[in-house]
Amino acid sequence: MRNFFSSGSVPRVPAILLAMLLLAASGGASAAAYGYSYTNIFGLVISTPTGTTSVISNIDLSRTTATVNGSSVIRGGANQIDAPQATRGAVSKGENDFTQQGMGQASYARGEAQIVSSQIPPFPPGSTSTHTVNAAETFLTGGGSADASGRNGSATAMAVNFVVGQPGATLAFDFQAQPYMQLYLDALAATGSAATTNMALTFTIIDENGAIVFNWAPDGSLGSGILGGTELADAASLNTGYAQTPLTSGSVFTYDPSGCGAPTGTGIGTTCGGQYGAVTDALAAGSYTLVLNMLNSSELAYVPAATPMPLPGTLPLLAAGLGVLALAPRRRGAPPHGPLAGATISSRSGRRKERAWAAGPAPMRPRNTARSNAAGPSTAWHCTASSCASSGMPSVREKVRRSRT
Fold it and tell me: Phi first, then psi: what are they for 249, rounded to 5°?
């Protein structure tokens, strides 16, 4: 029997049709989860509306982390203002690029942090304000886990000086900020999957006995999120997070309260942001520590569903390929060539006939009966009257007549 895939048994599938079918068949959706958290603080000025203060010491901190499926890295630390980017997996963004890499074809995690400028102490020399940026970005394709963080902060030891006639000193904080987050968990996520992004920004003053006398965590609601002072401006929450589970999966969550959109350039622009401000209650003379802490993070855990679904864009491609295949001409039961071309193969004897077609026409057999031996040579071939006359061989009729005489 001929091989089904031989060139003569069925019409060949055109190469373009075969490519369409293979592309559609390989278009299964890859499980995916994505998180991005970004905060840009700029124009931060710390002033003393009343009283006087002096700086004793300052320690800056810039640190980044990244993890993909248990493989982790930590970069930077204390006394640094620009931590190297922490990367794991298929990271394509360069150093100090805080813009989104986005969803791709391979898993990755990256943390980025930089104190661009500092008021206390002045950096670069002559700087009168602080500018700090963080970003954490993670992406998973298929099952696994990933997390990343970017953190900037400082701890400034200061003294509030005693001034005759004044109850103490006050500190005021004024700055602009651009917060932005995106989070996605696809609809194939099974139980155990989760995606979160978070951001935090706090200003804390601790006295020499370790007691917190001032704490401010902007939450987007004027008058709340503050202890030991008064809030003057609070454009949007800088202490918030997003979370997705399989119950809320399938949509992209975006946090853009300032309306600035996703960061552009390298993500350190100072042209768009909301306004923030606060002032402390009066601080008695003594020693204090001012702690500024800014953190962005993203964490993913993905458990894919048992049966991936094809991507929507591949379904029309698969339908088109099958439609072309259905319209392709077919020759049911016909041999590719030979004297029986065009004959119909019966269901019961098709295999025997197919073997006969494959072998070609059979030669005529010699007649070896006793009667034919008596009439002539044993190798005499069966022939018709006309062909025997021309070849000198006796015809069948002549052989029968001779055998009877």
Answer: -75, 165
